[in-house]
Amino acid sequence: MKVLVATEKPFAKVAVDGIRQVLEEAGYELALLEKYNSRQLLLEAVADADALIIRSDVVDAEVLDAAKKLKIIVRAGAGYDNIDLAAATSHNVVAMNTPGQNSNAVAELALGLMVFAIRNFYDGTSGTELKGKTLGIHAFGNVGRNVARIAKGFGMNVIAYDAYCSDEVMVAAGVTPVHSAEELYDKAQIVSLHIPATAETKQSINYNLLSRMPNNALLVNTARKEVINEEDLIRLMSERNDFKYVTDIMPASDHKMHELFEERYFSTPKKMGAQTAEANINAGIAAARQIVDFFVNGNTRFQVNK
Ligand code: 3PG
Known about the structure:
Blueprint (H helix, E strand, L loop, with lengths): L1 E6 L5 H13 L3 E6 L4 H7 L5 E4 L6 H6 L5 E4 L9 H6 L3 E4 L5 H16 L15 E5 L3 H12 L3 E5 L5 H6 L3 E2 L3 H7 L2 E4 L13 H4 L7 E4 L8 H10 L4 E4 L6 H7 L4 E3 L9 H21 L9
Parallel strand pairs: 1-2, 1-3, 3-4, 4-5, 6-7, 6-9, 7-8, 9-10, 10-11, 11-12
Bound molecules: 3-phosphoglyceric acid.
3-phosphoglyceric acid binds next to loops.
């Protein structure tokens, strides 16, 4: 059984060692394709793989066509918008994610970006503090819950909106539920995005929502660039010089935003929310275990293309 780990953005070495150990204990072979810079290399590497572990690597019909032996793909992480699920299903390939495994890492980065932004990007001038500010968490999944836990340690007033999460879950976490996105953006001086990129959410963070935020607003995006309506964001930031945007996913208009909003905009060069040794170990080893459990026991608990 051959398991290909194809990661354009590699895991920490310690995580690869852990994956190898899990697979070798099961008698499987590990093939490693890291930092590949052409799609052709991926198409060649998947040809004889029975299983595939990826991160944000795109798996579409072309990759699935090339992967003649493939039975399972595990996205070592939360968001699986990089996998063509319908194509996986039609190729009889099970697709899974590893929910929760990297969520603390992403949450820590979200809080780090908040401090960075409200301290004026560490430029030596006087900034503000998180304590006492209202934080709006947009979607209360694994990352949102970790953000809430850490934000409470900072002394923030935490509110959240999630159409798919009950008030009870939020209240138990010490968070005040609100019942529409509009209400969240009306009340929160800082909004942290934790929504997946779906047909429903793409472009949904638009002028209407963002213009509701109170003075000295900060939008933090450690989710996906596709959820932002970039044109609307640029329009709003042009109108409001009290509005800051910090993101872990470089927008298509990164260059323009740097030019226009030099002191109010920041993007990481490459998505790094889940780029910690701990998150790589957790997600990578979970992916390897899920593959073994699938082949040995038929376990499909984390399947996302049912
Ligand atoms: C996720 O969906 O798990 C995060 O966005 C992390 O993605 P990455 O593995 O590409 O860093």
